[in-house]
Amino acid sequence: MEKVKLGDVAKKAGVSLTTVSRVLNNRGYISKETRKKVNDAMEELNYFPNEIARSLFGNKTNFVGLLFPNVTNPFYGEIVSELESTLASRGYKSLICNTYNNEEKESNYLKMVLANQVDGIIVGSRNRPSSIYQSANLPIVAIDRFVSSKVPIVRSDNYGGACLATEYLIEKECKNIVHFTGSSEEEIKKCDLRMQGYIDTMLKYGKTPRVMKASFDEDEVYQRCKVADYLSASPEIDGAFAAGDTLAGIIYACCKQKGIDMEIVGYDGASMFTGLCGGVSTIRQPIKKMARLATDILLDAIAGTYQEYDSEHVLPVELIKRSY
Amino acid sequence: MEKVKLGDVAKKAGVSLTTVSRVLNNRGYISKETRKKVNDAMEELNYFPNEIARSLFGNKTNFVGLLFPNVTNPFYGEIVSELESTLASRGYKSLICNTYNNEEKESNYLKMVLANQVDGIIVGSRNRPSSIYQSANLPIVAIDRFVSSKVPIVRSDNYGGACLATEYLIEKECKNIVHFTGSSEEEIKKCDLRMQGYIDTMLKYGKTPRVMKASFDEDEVYQRCKVADYLSASPEIDGAFAAGDTLAGIIYACCKQKGIDMEIVGYDGASMFTGLCGGVSTIRQPIKKMARLATDILLDAIAGTYQEYDSEHVLPVELIKRSY
DNA sequence: ATGAAAGCGCTAACAC
DNA sequence: GTGTTAGCGCTTTCAT
């Protein structure tokens, strides 16, 4: 059973290709009867148009590339989920790309989506060389990342969230609060707002900031050891602000195993986390809103009705206190 | 700056379209010099072929549709992640579809991927009407789901895993063990192997099986209340086997808040869970292996070298004990 | 109100 | 070795 084509419908209905195409796209004048004939033929043959052919002609695919580190992480899972749903509801299809924060992978994926003529791209990878995006001459929106001065950014209030988290820990009377970051040296130097918020708040309250680097990308078991070692070596620590919830979860697990009961605040607040990790507090990003906003901007840009390419959209965060 | 086409390269290199196409595909005889000329021209113009056009011609898109309930759930997140990576490494591109276990959505997504000429589909949705897939005349692989007798299934040993979980709880001297399921009535009737394993094991040890229904699809807050109410009403319960880790997490949180310390075993064992929810044990599915196997089968089917359409591939599971 | 024909970007017979 | 030409499935001027 071969694929049914426009021509098959035309033959069956006894009309021309053009006519079938017309009723398909509801364009031009068609008599009631012809329309019915054609519709019946389509129905009978179970016809549906080949979107690839349409794309080729129209120079528009309605594909969007979604470049994120890894959908396994609940935060990215949730944002990709939301992006996909919003895009789908507006007629766009999502090509998913797990870059694993790997430069080469990201660059290959970029080439791939471009070769597949995507109409736009949403990036959430945290790689450095944004230069590869320069040549890509199409709408791009970045989630919590700088790509270039021409790429609008949607992110949460990293700085404010970090302040909120740190203040909460201070309020809880933690004496020695450490910040666990997943950022690389470069990122930190550039502008790590979560770290900056932590540092500024600590200083504001006359406390000494302490930072522990635990890369996001490392193997989890390895990270666990690193964190455990650190906690053992620094028994005075009684509060932690982690730059992400996965990290916060790891810290929590280490504490549990060592019998330490300390106050932990993470960042992200994906619904899965909040449900599952009631032992840690978190700064919740408005994931749904971020996804919707990013979609709106991207589709406007695709439609050519968006101009503020250098805009930065900072959405407010919320402190979710631990529930046990 | 318009998109560079084959013709532009041909013109620049002073050759014909065919020649360019030949060096692009490495087919037929081409002299060293011409090849160089063409390659240089491609380089200079920063040319890359339009995959959509190629697809149209070849009747092969290298697209694969991934239909899963929701990438937000770490189990699906991880499996989709793995599928995407494996597929990408073999030259395939993933169209992601979050069906939210909604029949209509699933059906629409199916139409969408078909219209986009995907070469194959991998389904993990848990909907009933698999009938919609009948008409789709292309390779499909199902993850832990029955679609039709012609669709191979890849799944973990649900029955064995459930037995393992239940036996563990018994071994831990739990007196009153309840099973929390997310399945619908229909699914249960049909064949819910996790439940069956639980029931059989309970009976084998002379215990009375008890089942609590907590739909996977419900709102999380609502579920939490339901679970909390149930636990309050049945204080004798001291062990739980949950059909999924999200559910296990919810149960754990309820217990924590109520000060109950009971033994909980979940199911799935996505790496995120295991890292994050150290308080619950789980039956770990070999997610990576499942993804690889599903990919292998699908690609073989696409290549026409796979024949056992009615096969069921059951992979072994593993008990991960709680770490605190 | 409908049809014939050209073309979207690329590939593959088939010539030369 | 390289070019000419037709065609993948669809849309759209331009006729009629």
Q: Give the termini distance of chain A in whole angstroms.
A: 60 Å
How do the strands line up in the largest sheet of chain A? 2-1-3-4-5-11
- How many DSSP H or I helices of chain A? 13
Strand portion of chain A, in percent?
A: 15-25%
Q: Helix fraction of chain A? A: 40-55%
- According to CATH, the homologous superfamily of the largest domain in chain A is Response regulator
Judged by helices, strands and strand pairing, the structural class of chain A is alpha/beta
Q: In the CATH scheme, what's the topology name of the largest domain in chain A?
A: Rossmann fold
Oligomer: homodimer
SSE ordering of chain A: HHHHEHEHEEEHEHHEHEHEHEHEE
**What is the molecular shape of chain A?**
elongated
User: What integer is the average pLDDT of chain A?
Assistant: 93
Which parts of chain A are unreliable, with pLDDT below 50 for 5 consecutive residues or more?
Answer: none
Number of strands of chain A: 12
- Biggest beta-sheet profile of chain A: 6 strands, parallel
Domain count of chain A, please report it: 3
* The level-1 CATH class of the largest domain in chain A: Alpha Beta
Reconstruct the topology from this structure:
2 copies of one chain form a homodimer.
Chain A: H1 6-13, H2 17-25, H3 32-45, H4 51-58, E1 63-68, H5 74-89, E2 93-98, H6 103-115, E3 120-123, E4 140-143, E5 153-156, H7 158-171, E6 177-181, H8 185-191, H9 193-204, E7 210-213, H10 220-233, E8 239-242, H11 245-258, E9 263-268, H12 271-276, E10 281-284, H13 287-303, E11 312-315, E12 318-320
Parallel strand pairs in A: 1-2, 1-3, 3-4, 4-5, 5-11, 6-7, 6-8, 8-9, 9-10
Antiparallel strand pairs in A: 10-12
Helix pairs in contact in A: 1-2, 1-3, 5-13, 7-9, 10-11
The structure holds a DNA duplex (16 and 16 nucleotides).
